[in-house]
Fold this protein.
Amino acid sequence: MLRQPDDNQTAQSSRNIITREDLMLAERAEKYKVQLQRTEVFPTEENWQYITENAMSEVAPELYHKYLIAWLTPENDRSDFHQLTLEYFPEYLSVIDRDTALDTVYADVETAPEATLGLIRDCALFSAPDLSLLLDKGVDAGFVALCLKAYQPDYDADDLMDMQALLRKMQQLPEKGQIALPRGIFSRDEKYICPKGHTNPANAEFCSSCGLDIYGLNKEQAACIQLLASRTKTLGALLSPRTRR
C-alpha cells in the first residue's frame, strides 16, 4: 500500500531552503558593498577572484564605479589596484546575471563613454531596449550608433522585434543640421549647414570640416545604422521557420 506524505513533510519540502554557504556569501557581499562605497577602497586580487568566482552581482554598481574611476585615471597615475580593476571587471561582468550587468552598465554611459562602449562590445552587452531607452533620455545618438556593433549572447523572436524597433528610431533621428539658403546677396544656391554651423554644398552627405551628417553622425556612426539594418535582416532569416533544416 502506498503511503501518503503527511502535512509536515509536504510543508518541509516546499520551504525555501538557504544553505549556510549562501548566507555567508550574502553577508560578505553586504560587507563588500559598504566598503566599496569608500572612495579610496578598491578590491585586492584575492577579493576580485572571490567576487568573480561567486558571481557576486550585489556589488555590480560599486565595482562599475571603480572601473570608471580606474579607466579615467591617467595611465602613469594608475595604481596596482586600478590595473586589477581594469583587468577583472570585464570578466566579472561576463559571469554575473545578464540583467544585472545590463542595468549596471546602462545606468551610466556618460561618465566615460569610451570605457562603457568597450564593455558593451567586449562583454556582449548589446540590448536593443536599453539602447532605445538611451535615445529617449537624450543620450548622444552617435554613442548609441557605435553600440550597434555589439552582440548579445543569443537571440529570439522578441529580440528581433526590439532590434527592428530600435532600427526605426535610428532611421528617424531628428535633423540637427539643415539645407538652407546662405545669408548674402551673391549666392542663391542651397547649402548644407552642418550641426556645427559649417557650410557645404547641398548634396554633401557629410561636412567637409567636421565630418557630421545632418543628423549629427559621422561616417562610422552612420555605417553602424546600416549594419543594424543588415543584422536584423540576417537574424530574421535565421529565425524564420522556412530557413530551418
Remarks:
- The first strand starts at residue 178 and ends at 180.
- Strands lie at 178-180, 191-193, 199-201.
- The two ends are 50 Å apart (CA to CA).
